[in-house]
Every structure is written in C-alpha cells, then in structure tokens.
Fold each of these.
Amino acid sequence: MNALYECLVSHSRLKPKRHAFNYRVFMFCVDLDDLPRLSHRIFGFSHNRFNWFSIDDQDHIDLGKPGGIRGNLIAWLNTQELHFPADVKIQLLTFPRALGYGFNPVSFYYIFAPSGTPLAVVAEVVNTFREMKLYAIDSVGDDQLWHRRVAKNFYVSPFSDPSIDFDFRLGVPSDQWRVNIDDYADGERILQSSVRGTRRRLSSFRLVWYALKYPLLSLRIIGLIHWHALLLWARRVPYFRKSDRLEAQQDVMRQQSSSKSKSP
C-alpha cells in the first residue's frame, strides 16, 4: 500500500560523550511497480522528473542493470545468495527529493511474497560523500522484528570508526512503523538511532500540506547532519578522517576515486 509516514528521528550518542537530538520528517512508502503511475495521480509528486517532491532512480541502487531500482535491487540480492520469485512486491521507504534536491541517509526496501508475507528487508545507507552501502536483513526475532548485527565497513560518520557494528531492528510498515539502527564497538552500544513513524494517506492534499509543514526537507536533513557534526567536533569527540580507515570501507557503491585506489 502506498502511503506517507510522518516520523520522529532520534539520535543519542552514548560514548565517548553524550549527545542527543531528534527531528520530525516524513517519508514515502511506495510499491516500486507503482512509481510511474503515482506521477500521474498525485499532484506535486514525480518519478525521475523535477517536482515539489520526487523519487529519482539515480538516488538509489544502480548496478547498470535494466528495470530501474527494482531490477538493480534484485540483481544485488542475487549476489548475496538471496533469491526470490519474480513476482515479489517491493516497497521502498525513503526521503523524497524536495525541489530537485535530495539526500537519503537511509532508505529501506521491504520485500513481500504475493501473499503479503514479508521475506526480507534491505537497508540502503548513504554517506555525505554520496557513497552507498546495502545491508540485507532476512532473520526475524521472537519480537517479530527483522534483526541483524553486521560489521558496518562503511564511512558513515567522522565520529564513528567504519569497522564497528551496525545492529538493525526493523519493523514491517503498518499503521505504525519502527526502526532501530544502533552502533556497537567491542560489544558495547555507543550510539542509538531510531525512526518512529505513523502512516498517513498519500494524497495530493497531504503533499501540499507537507510542502508547507516540512519546507526544503532534504536541505534540512543535510543541514542538521553538518550542524551536529560541528557540535561534536567542538566538544572534541575523536574524529576519523575518511582516508585514515580505507581498509575498513568494503563493498561500497559509488565509491570515490581516492578510496577506490586504496581499498582492498
């Protein structure tokens, strides 16, 4: 079901110094097969074209395969030994571009059988260099959340070593939606990140309202990232340069040329 999620995003750094903040945003939840049709049905929204809000294929996984985002995601899943029937449904939860500018620190692909049974989730993480890394999560815990702890091996923040672990706990989108992505170093949690969302109807009227309520959404997100990085730097939180830990940056997509020449 295509929808919007109005979300509260929270970050809480536990070590080496405490620092916390939260902000409100909204995200699109769309069936990848419906993207072209939504462009004609929803005022203020486009797919691969400029509009007040838009979703653009080039902001997401691109392995040069046919079939847009869906075709490229399926191709990547096959490289991870995750094979699904051709008729699976894929829902994308993501931040839209706003007036042509987009930045998605994280997007999520939920893969469903035609019966509606969830099969797997893929987290698509992007850093401020526009590099990307995907993490597949295909295990469900007793709490009915999708779980995986995995080495990050990606330069996401200059205040976190790229070799520490991501701990994913992801809920399936319904009336409410929850996501936790925490950082662990040497078995100890050092950063808590969460998204809590409430489903809203995707309509032209609501997009017009959100254009007023969340003006310049993407610029606000990237601005907050840099502002809080400045605050951490001012508090002398240890800083990792990207070039210092190239060996810990693995399987990165859209990798910058300076990293490519030195990565394993």
Note: Residues 3-260 form one domain.
Amino acid sequence: MGKVLDLSEENYALLMRLAPDLALMAGNYQSSLDQGMDLYLEAIEQTPYTSLVHLTYYFSHAVGDYPDPDAMLRVYHDSRQIDVLDLRQSTLPLQRWGLNPTLEQRWRINLFLSKWLRYCVAQGHSFMHENQIVNRELSMSELS
C-alpha cells in the first residue's frame, strides 16, 4: 500500500508543477509548445479541499478528436494526493479495473500517471490562468 501512496503523492507534486494554481482554476486550459502535442486540462469541480480534473491530449482523426491518454483525477489538496478515477490510454496494456481496483492495478495506474506527468513537466507544459480557453459566443454589439 505504501508504494501506491508514494506514487499518489509524487503525482500530486508533478501535477502542481504543471498547474500550481489548480485549486483556483475553473474551466478549460491548454498548454501549447513549439514542438509536441498540446496538453489539455479541464478543472471540472472545486471544493474546499479537492479538485476534479480531466487531463488529456487530443489526436486528430477522420471522425474527430481522440483523447489519449485520457485521465479523470480527484486531487486532494489537504493530503497532497491524487486518486485516479478513470484512465484510458492505448500505449500500455492497462486492464480496466472497475469499481474496486486491486492494489497491483492501482500501482500500475499510478505508475503510468507518474511517467506521463513527468514527461509533460520535462516537455515544459504548464497551465496558468492566461492559457485558459474561453468558449463564448459574441454578443450582437461585439459583432458590429
């Protein structure tokens, strides 16, 4: 169990390097680099001690954008840990774990997340308030 908790804490530290103001963020964010894929973060929900976050790359396909890896994370700011709620990816053979993953499955899931977050940090990705994606329709006065 200790190794899973260590990875969960490591993942929290890595995510905080990517998004230091995560507890204050809301909505959609994009991190773009000169070379490499854009990384997307959606801060879905904020409570006093947690954040619900969606993190992914989007690959373009003929039928639309395909998220991979695609992670839904519950971030615990008070205990400085991350719980992986869902993780879909096609690179490594992670089996679906259902509602109650085994300790070994949790370790593999957190290890994958750790390697991915470490790669994103090494690439130079970061999420700040200035790279928030604002989706809104222009009002009639802005069109004229």
Note: The beta strands are 27-31, 39-46, 50-61, 64-76, 81-88, 132-133.
Amino acid sequence: MSNLNPLGTLTSIDAVAACCGDDCCSDGSVVEISHTQLETITAAVKHQYGALAESAAERAADPTRRKATDRYYSADQRQVLPDEAAGASGGCGNPVGIADAKPGETVLDLGSGGGIDCFLAAKEVGDEGFVIGIDMTPRMIELAQKNAANLGTENVVFKLGHIESIPQPDNTVDLVISNCVIALSEQKDRVFSEIQRILKPGGRFVISDMVTEAPLPDEVRASAAEWVSCVGGAAVMSEYLELIEEAGFTGTEVLKQERSRPDAVDWQTTLINLTLRAYKPA
C-alpha cells in the first residue's frame, strides 16, 4: 500500500467534484472545505457527510438529483425507505441486496449513513434478529435515528463510532455489510482486522467498495474532493484483496465488478465498483 500522505498538498473542492460512479456520495453538490478545517482526512469526511445529512430532505425532494438508491436499489427496496434516508444515500453497490441475511442474525453496517441498508437488513433478519449501524458523523446518526422512528423500526440501533475501532464486542456479529465506506479510511488494514474481531466464527462480510486497477496519480490522492468522494483513498484491487487475506479471511469471492466511470478517458478508467464476500474461519 502507498505511504503517500494525502494531506501533503490539498487541492480545493469544486462544484464538479467526482463521486463513486458519479452519483453515490454527493452528486456533485460538494461543500467547500478549507485547509484550516482539514486536520485529517477523517475531519474532511465527517465535514462532508455531515453536510450531506443536513441536505438529505432537499436532495430527496429534488427530482433532478440522481441518488445512489436510484442506481443500485430496486423499486421494491426504495419503496420501503424514508425519503430522507434515500436523500442521504451514498454508495457504489447494494451489498444488503446480495448478502442473504437470515432471520435471527445480527448484522452490522459500517458507515450506515441515513440507515438505508440497516432498514433493509432489518426486514430480512426479522423480529428475532438485530441490526447495528456504525457511523462517525453525529448528524448522520441523528438522521438515521429519526428515520428509524418514522419507520417504527425496533430491531435497529445506531452507534457513533469509527470503522477502524468498531464499538462492538468480539465474536458477536453474523454478517458485516458496508457500502463504499472502507475507501474513505486511511487504515484499511485496521478496518479488516476489526471486522475479523467482531464476526462470530464462520461469520461473513459482504461489502461494496471503490478500488482501482492501478495506483492513482499523486494529485488525485492529494485532492480533498476525491478523498471525500470515495476515490482518493481507493486501493489497488490486488492490494485490497491482500489486506483481506492478511486479516485472516477465507473464501473471498467477487460478487460484482463494474467500471465506475465507463465513459472516462483518463485515470478514471481504472476505477472499479467492487462487491465481494469473505468468511471468518469457523
């Protein structure tokens, strides 16, 4: 993995900042982030997604804005989601749609945002199951809790926390899901180690994420806009799979792989939306 410090030289965020598949994180409506606000990439991400939570209702009501749920989720799935949950949606796939969550299981969603995947998983695990959403942005947690109350969902809880240090005991989760969130982390090895820790023996994860075929240009990794848009921190796919293996997972299977920006002509041609599954040994 590259040791390049993405905060070495930061370029500003502009109105046409890209996103995972051009529509998953912010559909181009990226707020300006100044250098003084950017102590870390984490601060930049929290700033951006806090703003996304605040504008969720506005985005949901605007028919010209194509949301991640519009691209990756079925009409039946979208029908059961609160408008504000869809308005805050961000992702590059639909992991819960192919995760095969079973009745009675405990599911944990990394980077749960407004709660869309949590609410869909809650229906699959039923009243005997349990869903936990983890997000580091207080405004997203507040939005998700509001959405849960509106839905009357009683088997979902949202926790404030970081995916590099998940607030969950060891060996307590059957299934971990995540949608274009690990790409935002500077410590992906720690994320996979944490997933391994909290999964029960024989448990699995199903995640969608942004990866690349080749290393990104330095100027992309140094761009605040590209980092908060899931791109600047995207790992080379081969290195990403190595991290999963090094964390102790087995049976890794690529479930879906597609070009994120199929019409691109430069480094963006290397971007891949990847959905995969792997297991913690029994």
Note: The two ends are 29 Å apart (CA to CA).
